Automatic annotation (TrEMBL):
Signal peptide: none annotated. In the C-terminal section; belongs to the HTP reductase family. GO terms for molecular function: 5-amino-6-(5-phosphoribosylamino)uracil reductase activity; diaminohydroxyphosphoribosylaminopyrimidine deaminase activity. It comes from Rhodocytophaga aerolata. It catalyses: 5-amino-6-(5-phospho-D-ribitylamino)uracil + NADP(+) = 5-amino-6-(5-phospho-D-ribosylamino)uracil + NADPH + H(+); 2,5-diamino-6-hydroxy-4-(5-phosphoribosylamino)-pyrimidine + H2O + H(+) = 5-amino-6-(5-phospho-D-ribosylamino)uracil + NH4(+). Pathway: Cofactor biosynthesis; riboflavin biosynthesis; 5-amino-6-(D-ribitylamino)uracil from GTP: step 3/4; Cofactor biosynthesis; riboflavin biosynthesis; 5-amino-6-(D-ribitylamino)uracil from GTP: step 2/4. Its EC number is 3.5.4.26, 1.1.1.193. PANTHER family: 2,5-DIAMINO-6-RIBOSYLAMINO-4(3H)-PYRIMIDINONE 5'-PHOSPHATE REDUCTASE, DIHYDROFOLATE REDUCTASE FAMILY PROTEIN (AFU_ORTHOLOGUE AFUA_8G06820). This is Riboflavin biosynthesis protein RibD. Residues 1-119 form the CMP/dCMP-type deaminase domain. It comes from the Bacteria.
């Protein structure tokens, strides 16, 4: 199952809104085939694993180790449960039961009715961590929300004039680009868009650009900003107009205390399973105050500004810490979830 999870992770950034899935086929304690879901719309892990088996006759006496319950419905591809039944596998060991109501135990039931022995819950915690975006989306009806910022040793995210380049080092910034390639969307507030003029694309890493999201309630941001270059699908949430221009979409919402929650619900409706909130401090604090976040990734630099914009205030249990040259990365998880 650990091997199946390793394979599943290879689909990171490529399969959303599907989950990452890996499959290992074992005959008499020997792996005879393995596969993973490589890209949304392409064959699922079970199909790729079966196709990798040279002698299909061995499948009748084989066990499939799958990280997620085999699907039982027709989507972009036929049901994987039917494929395992067709080849009369002896047993299926499953890491996680699918939270998608289209599957939700139906795949397991189908396999059992066909006489296939089932075991579930193997490395279940690791499987849920791998597919935390998918499970959050299915179970909480919203994207997985990651807060991210870099702060100085004296707790500041920008100077008084809002300039901040660069607080973290080049290795940390490369890591951030790898994160962008793994998430569906990336969000900034008005001030960050205006003063930093970020591109919010994947440049120091190989991968797909996330959907860009900017909050500009009164539509005061200039059209010359990178955010509005139409090179990447960009959503601009405001209170004035709804309009579509090629890769740029303006979405009007009511100017109410529920503005952020309505953005998150709109992203859910668009099947966006994860979003990184990259600033600024006001926007990050708003998500923290609403307790509307799952994970926070904070870089702390050795730099000192003395005066400037204070970093967000986060009181949460530390989950992980890592030194990255002269930076330190702190990762927090929301204890209320």
């Amino acid at each position: 199952m650990r091997r199946a999870l390793e394979l599943a992770a290879l689909g990171s950034g490529q399969v959303s809104p599907n989950p990452m899935v890996g499959c290992v086929l074992v005959h008499q304690n020997k792996i005879i085939g393995e596969g993973w879901h490589k890209k949304y719309g392409d064959w699922h892990a079970e199909v790729n694993a079966v196709n990798a088996v040279d002698d299909k006759a061995l499948l009748r006496e084989s066990t499939a180790y799958v990280t997620l319950e085999p699907c039982s419905h027709f989507g972009k591809t036929p049901p994987c449960a039917d494929l395992l039944i067709k080849h009369q596998l002896k047993k299926a060991v499953i890491c996680n039961v699918d939270s998608n109501p289209l599957v939700g135990g139906k795949g397991i039931q189908k396999l059992q009715q066909a006489g296939i022995d089932i075991q579930t819950g193997v490395l279940e915690k690791e499987g849920r961590e791998l597919n935390k975006r998918f499970f959050t989306y299915m179970e909480q009806k919203r994207p997985y929300i990651i807060l991210k910022w870099a702060q100085t040793a004296d707790g500041l995210v920008a100077r008084e004039d809002y300039s901040s380049k660069w607080i973290s080092n080049s290795i940390s910034r490369t890591l951030v680009h790898s994160w962008r390639a793994s998430e569906d969307a990336i969000m900034v507030g008005t001030q960050t868009a205006l003063y930093d003029n970020p591109q919010l694309t994947v440049r120091d890493w190989s991968g797909t650009d996330p959907v860009r999201i900017v909050i500009d309630k009164s539509l005061r941001l200039p059209s010359s900003l990178h955010m509005f270059d139409k090179k990447v699908l960009t959503l601009c949430y405001n209170t004035l107009k709804t309009e579509r221009q090629d890769n740029l979409e303006f979405i009007k919402l009511a100017d109410s205390p529920l503005f952020l929650e309505e953005i998150i619900q709109d992203l859910y409706a668009r099947k966006i399973q994860s979003v990184i909130i990259e600033g600024g401090s006001k926007l990050l604090n708003s998500f923290i105050e609403l307790r509307l976040w799952d994970e926070a990734r904070v870089f702390k630099s050795s730099q000192v500004f003395s005066k400037g914009i204070a970093a967000p205030l986060l009181q949460s249990q530390l989950h992980y810490i890592q030194a990255i040259q002269d930076d330190t990365l702190f990762i927090y998880k929301n204890p209320l979830l």
